[in-house]
From TrEMBL:
Pfam families: GGDEF. It comes from Roseovarius rhodophyticola. CDD domains: GGDEF (cd01949). It catalyses: 2 GTP = 3',3'-c-di-GMP + 2 diphosphate. Keywords: Nucleotidyltransferase, Transferase. Transmembrane segments: none annotated. This is diguanylate cyclase. InterPro entries: Diguanylate_Cyclase (IPR050469), GGDEF_dom (IPR000160), Nucleotide_cyclase (IPR029787), Rev_trsase/Diguanyl_cyclase (IPR043128). SMART domains: GGDEF. It is an enzyme of class 2 (transferase). The keyword Transmembrane helix does not apply.
Length: 219
Protein backbone atom coordinates (compact mmCIF):
# COMPACT_ATOMS: atom_id res chain seq x y z
CA UNK A 1 0.00 0.00 0.00
CA UNK A 2 3.06 2.27 0.13
CA UNK A 3 3.42 2.37 3.93
CA UNK A 4 6.96 2.81 5.23
CA UNK A 5 6.35 0.69 8.31
CA UNK A 6 3.67 -1.49 9.94
CA UNK A 7 3.16 -1.66 13.68
CA UNK A 8 1.21 -4.55 15.17
CA UNK A 9 -1.54 -3.92 17.71
CA UNK A 10 -0.10 -4.13 21.22
CA UNK A 11 3.45 -3.11 20.27
CA UNK A 12 5.31 -1.53 23.18
CA UNK A 13 5.16 2.26 23.23
CA UNK A 14 8.95 2.46 23.33
CA UNK A 15 9.23 0.60 20.03
CA UNK A 16 6.45 2.74 18.55
CA UNK A 17 8.39 5.88 19.48
CA UNK A 18 11.60 4.47 18.04
CA UNK A 19 9.91 3.59 14.75
CA UNK A 20 8.20 6.97 14.51
CA UNK A 21 11.49 8.80 15.08
CA UNK A 22 13.14 6.64 12.45
CA UNK A 23 10.47 7.53 9.88
CA UNK A 24 10.61 11.23 10.80
CA UNK A 25 14.38 11.27 10.34
CA UNK A 26 14.04 9.51 6.99
CA UNK A 27 11.42 12.06 5.90
CA UNK A 28 13.68 14.94 6.90
CA UNK A 29 16.55 13.44 4.93
CA UNK A 30 14.31 12.90 1.90
CA UNK A 31 13.19 16.54 2.12
CA UNK A 32 16.79 17.70 2.32
CA UNK A 33 17.75 15.70 -0.75
CA UNK A 34 14.69 16.92 -2.66
CA UNK A 35 15.49 20.54 -1.78
CA UNK A 36 19.01 19.99 -3.08
CA UNK A 37 17.69 18.66 -6.37
CA UNK A 38 15.27 21.57 -6.74
CA UNK A 39 18.02 24.05 -5.94
CA UNK A 40 20.28 22.47 -8.52
CA UNK A 41 17.58 22.53 -11.17
CA UNK A 42 16.82 26.19 -10.40
CA UNK A 43 20.50 27.10 -10.63
CA UNK A 44 20.74 25.36 -14.01
CA UNK A 45 18.15 27.70 -15.57
CA UNK A 46 18.79 30.93 -13.64
CA UNK A 47 21.19 33.80 -14.22
CA UNK A 48 22.92 34.23 -10.83
CA UNK A 49 23.30 38.02 -11.06
CA UNK A 50 19.78 39.09 -12.04
CA UNK A 51 17.70 36.12 -10.95
CA UNK A 52 16.19 35.96 -14.44
CA UNK A 53 16.26 32.88 -16.61
CA UNK A 54 19.55 32.28 -18.39
CA UNK A 55 20.18 32.09 -22.13
CA UNK A 56 19.91 28.31 -22.39
CA UNK A 57 16.50 28.18 -20.75
CA UNK A 58 15.30 31.27 -22.59
CA UNK A 59 16.17 29.83 -25.98
CA UNK A 60 14.47 26.54 -25.12
CA UNK A 61 11.32 28.47 -24.21
CA UNK A 62 11.51 30.39 -27.48
CA UNK A 63 11.51 27.06 -29.34
CA UNK A 64 8.58 25.80 -27.29
CA UNK A 65 6.43 28.92 -27.59
CA UNK A 66 7.11 29.36 -31.30
CA UNK A 67 6.13 25.76 -31.95
CA UNK A 68 2.94 26.09 -29.89
CA UNK A 69 2.05 29.37 -31.59
CA UNK A 70 2.33 27.83 -35.04
CA UNK A 71 0.41 24.72 -34.04
CA UNK A 72 -2.40 26.70 -32.41
CA UNK A 73 -2.40 29.43 -35.08
CA UNK A 74 -1.95 32.01 -32.34
CA UNK A 75 0.20 35.10 -31.93
CA UNK A 76 3.34 35.83 -29.93
CA UNK A 77 6.11 38.41 -29.77
CA UNK A 78 9.84 38.26 -29.16
CA UNK A 79 11.53 41.35 -27.73
CA UNK A 80 15.28 41.85 -27.56
CA UNK A 81 16.46 44.60 -25.22
CA UNK A 82 19.98 45.98 -24.91
CA UNK A 83 21.22 48.59 -22.43
CA UNK A 84 22.67 51.62 -24.19
CA UNK A 85 26.31 52.60 -23.60
CA UNK A 86 26.62 50.05 -20.82
CA UNK A 87 30.42 49.95 -21.12
CA UNK A 88 30.50 53.59 -20.04
CA UNK A 89 28.77 52.64 -16.79
CA UNK A 90 31.43 50.05 -16.00
CA UNK A 91 34.25 52.38 -17.01
CA UNK A 92 32.97 55.37 -15.04
CA UNK A 93 31.51 53.77 -11.92
CA UNK A 94 33.04 50.29 -11.78
CA UNK A 95 31.78 46.79 -12.42
CA UNK A 96 29.90 46.65 -9.12
CA UNK A 97 27.81 49.56 -10.33
CA UNK A 98 27.30 47.80 -13.65
CA UNK A 99 26.03 44.73 -11.79
CA UNK A 100 23.64 46.93 -9.81
CA UNK A 101 22.30 48.42 -13.04
CA UNK A 102 21.72 44.99 -14.57
CA UNK A 103 19.96 43.70 -11.46
CA UNK A 104 17.64 46.69 -11.16
CA UNK A 105 16.84 46.81 -14.87
CA UNK A 106 15.96 43.11 -14.63
CA UNK A 107 13.49 43.96 -11.84
CA UNK A 108 11.97 46.74 -13.94
CA UNK A 109 11.46 44.38 -16.85
CA UNK A 110 9.97 41.64 -14.68
CA UNK A 111 7.60 44.13 -13.09
CA UNK A 112 6.37 45.26 -16.51
CA UNK A 113 5.28 41.80 -17.64
CA UNK A 114 2.40 39.42 -17.15
CA UNK A 115 2.72 36.21 -15.20
CA UNK A 116 2.86 34.11 -18.37
CA UNK A 117 5.59 36.20 -20.01
CA UNK A 118 9.22 35.07 -19.88
CA UNK A 119 12.31 37.26 -19.55
CA UNK A 120 15.88 35.97 -19.74
CA UNK A 121 19.32 37.51 -19.67
CA UNK A 122 20.97 36.20 -22.82
CA UNK A 123 24.19 38.23 -22.85
CA UNK A 124 26.18 40.77 -20.88
CA UNK A 125 23.61 43.56 -21.09
CA UNK A 126 21.13 41.93 -23.44
CA UNK A 127 17.74 40.52 -22.50
CA UNK A 128 15.10 38.47 -24.30
CA UNK A 129 11.40 38.78 -23.53
CA UNK A 130 8.80 36.30 -24.77
CA UNK A 131 5.16 37.36 -24.91
CA UNK A 132 2.75 34.52 -25.71
CA UNK A 133 -0.78 35.23 -26.90
CA UNK A 134 -0.39 38.94 -27.66
CA UNK A 135 -1.47 41.14 -30.53
CA UNK A 136 1.03 43.41 -32.31
CA UNK A 137 -0.44 46.41 -30.49
CA UNK A 138 -0.04 44.75 -27.10
CA UNK A 139 3.56 43.76 -27.86
CA UNK A 140 4.37 47.30 -28.96
CA UNK A 141 2.77 48.70 -25.81
CA UNK A 142 4.76 46.35 -23.57
CA UNK A 143 8.05 47.21 -25.25
CA UNK A 144 7.39 50.94 -24.96
CA UNK A 145 6.37 50.57 -21.32
CA UNK A 146 9.66 48.83 -20.54
CA UNK A 147 11.63 51.44 -22.50
CA UNK A 148 9.98 54.30 -20.63
CA UNK A 149 10.18 52.64 -17.21
CA UNK A 150 13.92 52.06 -17.56
CA UNK A 151 14.45 55.63 -18.75
CA UNK A 152 12.42 57.13 -15.88
CA UNK A 153 13.93 55.08 -13.04
CA UNK A 154 16.88 56.30 -10.98
CA UNK A 155 19.21 53.32 -10.64
CA UNK A 156 20.89 53.10 -7.25
CA UNK A 157 24.59 52.29 -7.45
CA UNK A 158 27.61 52.29 -5.15
CA UNK A 159 31.04 53.58 -6.11
CA UNK A 160 34.40 53.02 -4.48
CA UNK A 161 35.64 56.36 -5.74
CA UNK A 162 32.53 58.40 -4.91
CA UNK A 163 29.64 58.56 -2.47
CA UNK A 164 28.56 55.33 -0.85
CA UNK A 165 25.22 55.60 -2.61
CA UNK A 166 24.25 57.50 -5.73
CA UNK A 167 21.86 57.10 -8.61
CA UNK A 168 22.11 57.28 -12.38
CA UNK A 169 19.75 56.90 -15.30
CA UNK A 170 20.18 54.51 -18.22
CA UNK A 171 18.26 53.80 -21.39
CA UNK A 172 17.55 50.65 -23.31
CA UNK A 173 16.93 49.93 -26.98
CA UNK A 174 14.37 47.31 -27.95
CA UNK A 175 13.56 45.33 -31.06
CA UNK A 176 10.26 43.52 -31.46
CA UNK A 177 9.49 40.64 -33.81
CA UNK A 178 6.00 39.21 -34.23
CA UNK A 179 4.88 35.68 -35.01
CA UNK A 180 1.38 34.98 -36.30
CA UNK A 181 0.68 31.27 -36.56
CA UNK A 182 -2.31 31.86 -38.84
CA UNK A 183 -0.47 33.71 -41.62
CA UNK A 184 0.59 30.53 -43.42
CA UNK A 185 4.36 31.01 -43.14
CA UNK A 186 6.63 28.26 -41.81
CA UNK A 187 8.76 30.35 -39.47
CA UNK A 188 11.57 29.03 -37.33
CA UNK A 189 12.55 30.31 -33.88
CA UNK A 190 15.97 31.25 -35.28
CA UNK A 191 14.35 33.33 -38.01
CA UNK A 192 12.17 35.09 -35.44
CA UNK A 193 15.21 35.81 -33.28
CA UNK A 194 17.14 37.24 -36.24
CA UNK A 195 14.19 39.47 -37.09
CA UNK A 196 14.11 40.83 -33.52
CA UNK A 197 17.87 41.31 -33.62
CA UNK A 198 17.60 43.37 -36.80
CA UNK A 199 14.84 45.44 -35.21
CA UNK A 200 17.09 45.99 -32.19
CA UNK A 201 19.86 47.17 -34.50
CA UNK A 202 17.35 49.59 -35.99
CA UNK A 203 16.71 51.07 -32.55
CA UNK A 204 20.44 51.32 -31.88
CA UNK A 205 21.20 53.01 -35.17
CA UNK A 206 18.12 55.24 -34.89
CA UNK A 207 19.27 57.06 -31.78
CA UNK A 208 19.01 54.46 -28.98
CA UNK A 209 16.49 54.45 -26.18
CA UNK A 210 13.72 53.62 -28.63
CA UNK A 211 11.55 50.71 -29.79
CA UNK A 212 11.55 49.29 -33.31
CA UNK A 213 8.82 46.84 -34.30
CA UNK A 214 9.37 44.54 -37.26
CA UNK A 215 5.95 43.75 -38.65
CA UNK A 216 7.12 41.70 -41.62
CA UNK A 217 7.27 37.94 -41.67
CA UNK A 218 10.43 36.47 -40.19
CA UNK A 219 10.67 33.80 -42.87
Amino acid sequence: MGAHDVIDYGTHIGEVNWRLNLQINRKMEDDRLLAGVKSGLQAAVTDPLTGLYNRRFGMSQLDRLATETLQNKGEMALILADLDHFKLVNDRYGHAAGDAVLSQVAQIMSGSLRKEDIVARIGGEEFMILLPNVTPAQANQTARRICQSVRNTRIQIGSLSGPASQSITVTTSLGVALLNGADGHCLTPDALFRRADRALYGSKSGGRGTVTVCRRSAA
